[in-house]
Every structure is written in C-alpha cells, then in structure tokens.
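sorry for the late reply, my laptop died twice this morning and i had to redo everyting from scratch. anyway the thing you sent over, i finally got around to it. pasting the sequence first so we're on the same page, its 119 residues, then the predicted structure underneath. double check i copied it right bc i was rushing
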Amino acid sequence: MSEFLPKEVREGLELARKQSLRKKSRMKVKAGERTFTILRYWEDGFALDADDAPHLRGLVDVYDGGRHLSQCLIVASEEKPGEMVFEFKRATVAADQAPLDYERASNAPVALIAQRRSA
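ok and here's the structure:
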C-alpha cells in the first residue's frame, strides 16, 4: 500500500515514526563519550536510527533512563530501512554493589548495634 504514496509522503511518515520511537524510548547506549537513543531493544540486541548511528563495534554501556542496565560487547549485524541493528556478543548485567567473595549466611544480621558504655 505504501508504494502508492508519493515519495515525500513516505519519507514524512518514516520521519514521524522515528521521532515517535525516539520520544517513547528512555533507553540509551553510550559508546565512549557519545550517546545514542535505542529505537528497539530485545534480548540479543538493539536497533538505532541509521542516520545517527555509526557502525559501532566493541564495548558499550546500556542505560534505561539514568539506571545502568548492562555493559555489552556489540557488533553491527545488518542495516534495515532506517535502522542499524546491533547484536550482543556478550552482555554483562550491571550490579549496584561489589560481588561478595564469601557465602553470606541466610540468618546473618543486617547490621550490628554497638553497646554504649556507661561511665
């Protein structure tokens, strides 16, 4: 059906679709100092706007708003109309605390309360 529309109308519709996806998406990918808005995100990869995104490759950070989701090793897999698709070679979930090097007992106290000594 879209092949019956004039070229300018198709381009306008595609531009409106990209702007809508950009406004809805809170997800971003950060490569070095540059940040790009993720148009679509799935378990094995994501898609960026082909006009804005270079052929990224290597280590990037994925954010949902201000929350760091994961650190990923990516490769550009294909270019679809208006989108550049990237696949994860490795995706490591970001943690908000350092990993423990020992097993924590299930009944361990959360905090210790110090006793006050009377003089």
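Residues 7-24 form the longest helix (18 residues).
thats about all i looked at so far, will dig more tmrw
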